[in-house]
Amino acid sequence: MTAKVRGQDKPGRDRCGGVPRLAQVSGPNTNYDPVEVAALAPEAVEADVAAALSAVAAASDLEQLKAARLAHAGERSPLALANREIGALPPSAKAEAGKRVGQARGRVSQALAARQAELEAERDERILVEEAMDLTAVPARRPLGRRHVLTVTAERMADAMVGMGWEIAEGPGVEAEWFNFDALNFDKDHPARQMQDTFFVDPADAGLVLRTHTSPVQARSLLERGVPLYVAVPGKTFRTDELDATHTPVFHQLEGLAVDEGLTMAHLKGTLDRLAEAMFGEGIVSRLRPAYFPFTEPSAEMDFQCFVCRGEDAGCRTCGGTGWIEWGGCGMVNHNVLIACGVDPDRYQGFAFGMGVERTAMFRHGITDMREMIEGDVRFNAQFGMEI
Amino acid sequence: MRVPVDWLGEYVELPEDVTGEQIAADLVAVGLEEEGLHTSGVGGPLVVGRVLEKHPEPQKNGKVINWCQVDVGDANGSGEPQGIVCGAHNFEPGDLVAVILPGGVLPTPQGPLTISARKTYGHVSAGMICSVRELGIGDDHEGIIVLPRLLGADRVEQLGLTPGDDLVGVLGLDREVVEVNVTPDRGYCFSIRGIAREYSHSTGAPYRDPADLPVDPATDDGYAVELRDEHPRDGEVAGCDRYVARVVRGIDLTRQTPEWMARRLTEAGMRPIGLAVDVTNYVMLALGQPLHAFDLATLDGPIVVRRARAGERLRTLDDVDRELDPEDLLITCGPDGERVLALAGVMGGEDGEVTPGETTDVLIESAHFDARTVARTSRRHKLSSEAAKRFERGVDPAVTAAAAQLAVDLLVEHGGGTADPAITDRDERASTAMPSILLDLGMPTDYVGVDYSPERVVEVLRMIGCEVTPEDETLPGTVSVVPPTWRPDLTDAPTLVEEVARIDGYDKIPSVVPRATGGRGLTHAQRSRRAVAGALAGQGLQEVLTYPFVGATRFDELGLAADDPRRAALRLANPLSDEAPLMRTELLQTLPEVLRRNISRGSRDVALFEIDTVTLPDHSASAPVPDVGQRPDDATLEAIRAAVPGQPWHVAVVAAGLADRAGWWGSGRHVDVTDVAAWAHSVADTLGVRVRRRQAERAPFHPGRCVELTLDDGTTVGWAGELHPKVNQRLGLPERTSAAELDLEVLVRASDHRSQVTHLSTHPVAASDVALVVPLSARYGEVEESLRAGAGALLESIALFDVYVGDQIGDDQQSLAFRMHFRAPDRTLTTEEVNAARDAAVARAARDHGAVQR
Questions:
Q1: Cβ within 8 Å of B, A 216-275
Q2: Which residues in A lie closer than 8 A to residue B631 (C-beta atoms)?
Q3: Does A342 lie at the interface with B, CB-CB under 8 angstroms?
Q4: How far is A123 from chain B (nearest CA, A)?
Q5: What distance in Å separates the CA atoms of residue B535 and residue A368, rounded to the nearest whole number?
Q6: Could you tell me if B709 and B692 are in contact, meaning their C-beta atoms sit under 8 angstroms apart?
Q7: Rounded to whole angstroms, how far apart are CA atoms A261 and B446?
Q8: CA B545, B550, B556: angle at the middle one, nearest 5?
Q9: 8-state DSSP, A320
Q10: Which end of chain A has fewer CB within 10 Å, C or N?
């Protein structure tokens, strides 16, 4: 590879380069009077300088400046030629003439350098202007993908629990009937067991269901990890609802279970409040009210003020006009659940809660139609960032 | 449960100006969730009008309308007669009618309609003369309301109705109905009696028990009833432990149900049908005790309550002929109970039913049936009824006689009959009191975190009807609690704690964040899934979630062979759709639907991914289902766990359209199989797992465009490729749609999240390119692996950067150009060293693949 030397543009190059190729003009002459060398006369030198400075000033681009340099500071420029005449002067005259020509050449070369810098700056600026692009159109060359709002919401909820020192447990969606119901104190005749719109696995005596809630992981965790226990369980759950604006047969819950010595409903409320704060920020009104679940006693439901009507619209389709939205069910773990999991209910007590991830996401983002979260339309995803 | 406010006010004192909204809020506080608030939807001015003039005017369309002048008193502000067009004809001048004036609101199926003066049939009609249907108080639309006919002339006179008087109150249109959700543990709240009691608990308002009425004492000579349960439920619980039978004779069942009762029934959500049925329903709503009325004349021999016998059948009132189960409890009659009259507590049959116009003597059944027996029968026959709903949740066994009495009283009063003095009350309850519960008075505080004094605990328990007595000195601080008969749900100490907490108020529970024992954060698997999702989204893929349900036709569409193990999917007994009864065995069985949906909605350049579990049923063992309340033994637990099918986490991608979009910046590039292969690789890279590739043939992929990813040990990670053209066609996807599916469990297990780094050499890198001519059948990856193996430890990286097929080499050959980078950890490599390594690499490729350097 050979690089092009761009030194021609550099000021002062004529002073140090190319001398060997110069033709001899005059030999030493001791007889001449210095004044008789016209080219070295002060007026002549001054005129050369003036011509050079004027040419430099007149150069309007780097090309013209290059020509001016060649003409006024090059090897065949008047001052270079005059300089060569100095050698022909008697020694007594050499010093003065040398000084005069040297100063003249210096002035020219300074002017060249200054003009060079000026023109280069102009050129650089011009190039930046010429290279400008309009970037105000969307450069959607490779658009970013997105996480799904439900998975990110569930992660955020899980992270809030981790922040409280809890661990995140998981369990299977196709679950043993025993874990889904009996371990949680839903006996076989329990009305609640019928109320759950359960998908059963074929054949009916397989003893398997699609879990109707994440609660079976309560029993799994207690059996596998023992106590004290603080686990949250995000996961997919199933009920035989047709998909519509507010129902989906496949949905997500976050379950929480804490079993330890001395836990009370106040700890339950504290945990829920902290989680609510993590998910919704300040200003959301909530209430805890009595409810019934087979696996908790006492039981409670946690509600949030309806995010669409805020209780102002009796005809609100989102909350049915009641002004409240159920966020989750919760309560103190039923003795029978602890016993089924081999935990001594006289020593340990605990609380459990479960809430819908869909509801949480809907609440956070003002989503009013469940289907938009379910259908996988990429335009829905595009409304969110990667972190929500 | 729908609660008419005025009915509620009969049993508990309501504040003068109470609203349905306030009542709902008070009930919520004690655990009755509000389901809705129902009002008439009629807004005034709705006033009495007297028709002054009625001018029939035939119209071109054949209809005759009446142009009326109606005196509405001062209600219109002027006192002048109101001109109204009316299409009905069932009235005459002088009649008192119901007029809604401009500004009034009527409920319509389309929403509220505000009445205004409007031009119609050549007149300005300033209001409307209303029918009962327009006001929502009846179905009759034959004509408009003539007030004396609707209310009775006596009542009109009594009320002194004159033109201009407000009718909203008179017609009950200001009435409100509060609807609450009753949780399964509180069956007693399926009655106005129970709701009123709860309202009293919530507000402290005085309560009057409607069951507290004079009850005629039972006699020995009542209608014969035999409780003959030879097969008690679960071997120990009798199906019926109390049966009251009352007889009322000489009733005229053609008489109208009184208007107030019909209205209450309607408001409570039941249709008035006829006097006998209406009275039994009314008592059920009032007291929570379901009743049944039999036509006495059709009965012969004693009433026998027994279990069904093999082969017995019953046509229930819903006109379904049912085969009975030996566990079903029946109401029968005859010496041997041979005539089946009803499924006890669930539904009656045609035999024995009362018939208005024929029936004159009625036998009222008020009984207490076992909750589980009723629940099982209801479930078995998929037959739900208002009666079953109450019995399943527990009916107060002490209200039986009072309910029968109330029904008798109402029939006598409104049907004109006489009550038989002979009364049957077959009471075989083991005890008339509920089992007592030992309660440590400190337990509510320990459980709830509110400091309840012992006095407060006792006060609350007594308020809800418990008998509380101190235990003996050996157990200081404890009391013995006997719950009231209507609270079969109060069975242990925690249930009493809940009563204390809810009556004292859940709003008093403080908020205390517990100090957890301290966790270890997310697991490696959890973090890995997040990382993979983030990496794919970062590369432009959209995360979606699909339902896991598929049908066998999907397997056909995907081209799975008949014996493909992926067809062996878990089947649901009750799928949402018969088209999709199976649980997917791969994500790619459901993910493409979402791609198609996006394309159909106009998003053509779409790359999707899903991370979820699939279900792989690898055995057919059933899971045992042991009973509640005890820990199963280890072997049973193991059997339960083992029966749950494997559900590994997978990740799948599918993409169509442009990978690089076209736009003002330049042209685009279609997504192709190399994109999905690269994404699949990126999943492994995200987890730091080195994977190998091998050419594969596997549905649903193009047989020549599919790569299998494996671990170093050969374990399959998954596949990436272009979908088979036929698959794309069958699924309605664009040509060249490409996809991949990986087993995340395999990758997560293989990922070493504590991998150790090697020191970075800062010595110069030496590049060397080789072009190898190999047979067309040689796989890029395999040639690369040979070069890698042959080059040895000095090889830092290798990449295939060009492939040539053409004239300059043989027809069955290809030229592969690789760039290799060499570097040593401790020195600058000499040319000789680099050449030697390169030559060794080429030699290995020559040996393995017959490669010749170009």
A1: 223, 228, 230, 236, 240, 242, 249-250, 258, 260, 262-267, 269-271, 273-274
A2: 339-342
A3: yes
A4: 27
A5: 30
A6: yes
A7: 10
A8: 125
A9: T
A10: N
Residue B226: partners with Cβ closer than 8 Å, 6 or more residues away = B302, B303, B304, B305, B337, B426
Mutate one of A133, A148, A231, A238 to test the B interface: name it (highest B CB count within 10 A).
A148
Interchain proximity B545–A151, CB inside 8 Å: yes
- CB count in 10 Å sphere of residue A47: 13
pLDDT confidence bin for B239, thresholds 50/70/90: very high
Residue in chain B closest to A140 (alpha carbons) equals B661
Query: Which of A147, A151, A265 comes nearest B509 by C-beta?
Result: A265
Considering only CB atoms, which chain A residues are within 8 Å of B180?
none
* Test the B interface: residue of A156, A248, A265 with most B CBs within 10 Å: A265
- Nearest CB among B446, B519, B583 relative to A230 is that of B519
| Beta-carbon separation of B661 and A140 below 8 A | yes
Collect all residues of chain B within an 8 Å Cβ-Cβ radius of residue A271: 513-514
- CB atoms A375 and B659 under 8 Å: no
What are the sequence ranges of the domains in chain A? Answer: 22-130, 149-381
Q: B493: which 2 tokens?
A: 């100490």
ipTM: 0.84
- Could you tell me if A388 lies within 8 Å of chain B, comparing CB atoms? no
pLDDT tens figures, B4-61: 999 999 999 999 889 998 999 899 889 898 888 888 888 879 999 999 999 999 888 8
Tokens found for residue B584:
């997917």
Distance CA B203, CA B730 (A): 65
Neighbouring C-alpha atoms within 13 Å toward the C-beta of A127 = 6
- Helices A265-280 and A149-163 cross at an angle (nearest 10°) of 130
Classify domain A149-381 at the CATH topology level.
BirA Bifunctional Protein; domain 2 (3.30.930)
Per the listing, tokens 């066994």 go with B397
B489 is in an annotated binding site: yes
User: What single letter denotes the amino acid at residue B485?
Assistant: T
Helices B259-267 and B275-287, axial angle in degrees (round to 10): 60
Return the residue matching tokens 């049993």. Answer: B11
Q: Which of residues 149-208 of A touch B (CB under 8 A)?
A: 150-151, 155, 158, 162, 164-168, 170, 172-179, 181-183, 185-192, 194-195, 199-208
d(Cα B660, Cα B658) in Å, to the nearest integer? 5
Classify the C-alpha dihedral B388-B393-B397-B403 as positive or negative. negative
- Predicted confidence (pLDDT) per residue in A156-194, tens digit: 999 999 999 999 999 999 999 999 999 999 888 776 566
DSSP letters, B298-346, are G--S-EEEEE--TT-EEEBTTS-EEE--TT-EEEEESTT--EEEEETTT
DSSP state of B754: T
Q: What is the pLDDT of residues A256-267, one digit of tens each?
A: 999 999 999 999
Write down all domains in chain B, each with its CATH number in brackets.
Answer: 2-40+175-203 (3.30.56.10), 46-159 (2.40.50.140), 225-427 (3.50.40.10), 437-508 (3.30.56.10), 524-750 (3.30.930.10), 766-853 (3.30.70.380)
* b/e sequence B363-399, b meaning 16+ C-beta within 10 Å: bbbbbbbbbbbbbbbbbebebebebbbbbbbbbbbbb
